[in-house]
């Protein structure tokens, strides 16, 4: 007779499952405890800790950590600029995809419009009136907002896959227009784009294509400003409307939310940030042509948002940095980057369907303040033996006398 019984194997399986569940529960408790610890900090304490993180971010190319450096294959300061640029693009696309829930596959079109605005108004190859490079940054945002509204007005009535196909077509239309319109110079493109002013101690230009450090600092500063503005926007009526549309557009419209107007606002906001990123890219590289704005690059932008976690600003910033960093760090794998990110996204769909850093599903407006206020307002329970020591006796017409009279009436 065999020594192994079916009941014994079932018991062992149940024990293994129980241990795995216990491990998952412990990890969840640790994460929840960390989140609770952060929420319990005052606003000033949170800002001070964030300032430390920001200081480290500014010093990253200066420190050049040996474990994560991209040298000697790629200059680390320029790699940091590319990481910051992808993070800025992911922030803009997150407004459309993560906040409003609109699937945009042609975001590269807004990026291209911003780059061409910088080229047309600053390049020596352009016949347009030349203006200072820094003036092209707000101009690029304005022009891309116009393009975003022009695209959104006829197409935002669509949903899901249909909207994705239309936006994908928009990205291709921009690239084809850059090819067939003579003034945009197709493959030849524009050279010698303008750059921000400034010189170093030797009198040489500070912003050059080979010096990525000032460009990185400029983009990080812009990311901080954009993230703060988007955070305030998320906590406003507009942000709550976007979340309602993302969760259930029909329910939001029934509750009185003008969904079309808010979707158009999301499209315009995302387009402005995409155009800003495109103008920064054109200035740093100093060259713009139609080969830089293809569909695979647009898919990488979307992968950055999905990888980081849709709806989470910190998550998409890290997602954009990762998407830009991996091909630069492992240059020999750069040809397989689309395969690598495809595999990573499939694994994310299985193990982390909400991304590496999913958005927290709680009240956005003053959530931490409300939790702290509730904790302060919760009074300790009164002991059963009567009022707590040191308290004044109840008044004759107080609650105790009223309850006694009610009891007599009921009797």
Automatic annotation (TrEMBL):
GO terms for molecular function: branched-chain amino acid transmembrane transporter activity. GO terms for cellular component: plasma membrane. Pfam families: BPD_transp_2. The chain crosses the membrane at residues 47-64, 76-97, 102-121, 133-153, 162-184, 215-233, 264-287, 299-326, 333-351. It comes from the Bacteria. Keywords: Cell membrane, Membrane, Transmembrane, Transmembrane helix. InterPro entries: ABC_transp_permease, LivM-like. Residues 385-396 have a biased composition (Pro residues). The keyword ATP-binding does not apply. PANTHER family: HIGH-AFFINITY BRANCHED-CHAIN AMINO ACID TRANSPORT PROTEIN BRAE, HIGH-AFFINITY BRANCHED-CHAIN AMINO ACID TRANSPORT SYSTEM PERMEASE. This is Branched-chain amino acid ABC transporter permease.
